[in-house]
Amino acid sequence: MNTCPVPLSEHKTIQMAHGGGGRLMRQLIDQIFVAGFDNEILDEQSDSAVLDLTSDRLAFTTDSYVVQPLFFPGADIGKLAVCGTANDLAMAGARPVYLSAGFILEEGLSVALLSDVVRSMRQQADTAGIRIVTGDTKVVDRGKGDGIFINTSGIGVMSSQTKPGPSAIREGDAILLSGDLGRHGIAVMTQRDGLTFESPVESDCDHLWPVVHALQEHGVTLHCLRDLTRGGLASALVEVAESARLRLHVSARAIPVRDDVRGACELLGLDPYYVANEGRMIVIVPQAEVEQALICMREQTISAQATCIGRIDGDGDGRVTIESEIGVKRILDMLSGEQLPRIC
Amino acid sequence: MKYIDEYRDAESSRGYAEAIHKLTTRPWQIMEVCGGQTHAIVKFGIDQLLPDLISLVHGPGCPVCVTALETIDRALEIAALPDVIFCSFGDMLRVPGSKDNLLSVKSKGHDVRIVYSPLDAVTMAESNPNKEVVFLAVGFETTAPANAMAVYQAHQRGVKNFSVLVSHVLVPPALEAIMNDRECSVQGFLAAGHVCTVMGYRAYVPIASRYRVPIVVTGFEPVDILQGVYMCVRQLEEGRYEVENQYTRSVRETGNSAAQEIVEKVFRVDDRSWRGIGEIPGSGFTLRTAYESLNAELRYPSQRSAVVEPAECISGSVLRGVAKPHECPAFGKNCTPEHPLGATMVSSEGACAAYYRYRGSELVDDPAPAV
Question: How large is the ipTM?
Answer without folding.
Answer: 0.84
